[in-house]
Amino acid sequence: MPDHSSPLASFTGQYDAQGRQIITARGELDLASLPPLTHALTLAAVTGTPVILDLEAVTFADSTALSLFLATHQATALHLAAPGHLLRRLLEVTGTDQVLNLHPTLDDARTATA
């Protein structure tokens, strides 16, 4: 029987020298794969420090990912770094690019939160 589940997204988290939390997401961000990232962003949000979510290696995101971005944005200073073309298009079509803090690169997000 073929496996039709989506590949799980992976992520890593770290603090940088300025105390910002940087979470790097990889793979597909959808309903099946988001629980670990949701947990990490929820924990990051309670610290009150800026959170940078590096999206450069994300290959797909759906509306559940958008909901997670918006919920995290309401809880803390969330900065989305390096969203790929498809993710950027999704953010533009839904208008969330006007609400969320988007940065073309991780370095730009770091500069904006310095």
SSE layout:
Layout: E1 10-15, E2 21-29, H1 35-46, E3 51-61, H2 63-75, E4 78-81, H3 85-94, E5 101-103, H4 106-112
Parallel strand pairs: 2-3, 3-4, 4-5
Antiparallel strand pairs: 1-2
Give the overall form: globular
Count the strands?
Answer: 5
**Major beta sheet summary:** 5 strands, mixed
Q: What is the terminal-to-terminal distance?
A: 51 Å
List the quaternary state of the chains: single chain
CATH class: Alpha Beta
Structural class: alpha/beta
What is the residue-averaged pLDDT? Answer: 88
CATH superfamily: STAS domain
| Adjacency order of strands in the biggest sheet | 1-2-3-4-5
Describe the structure.
The chain is of the alpha/beta class. It has a single domain, classed as 2-Layer Sandwich (Transcription Regulator spoIIAA). 37% of the residues lie in helices and 29% in strands. The chain is built from 4 helices and 5 strands, in the order ββαβαβαβα. It has helices spanning 35-46, 63-75, 85-94, 106-112; strands at residues 10-15, 21-29, 51-61, 78-81, 101-103. The protein has a 5-stranded mixed sheet with strand order 1-2-3-4-5, sandwiched between helices. Strand 2 (21-29), helix 1 (35-46) and strand 3 form a beta-alpha-beta unit. Residues 1-6 have low confidence and may be disordered.
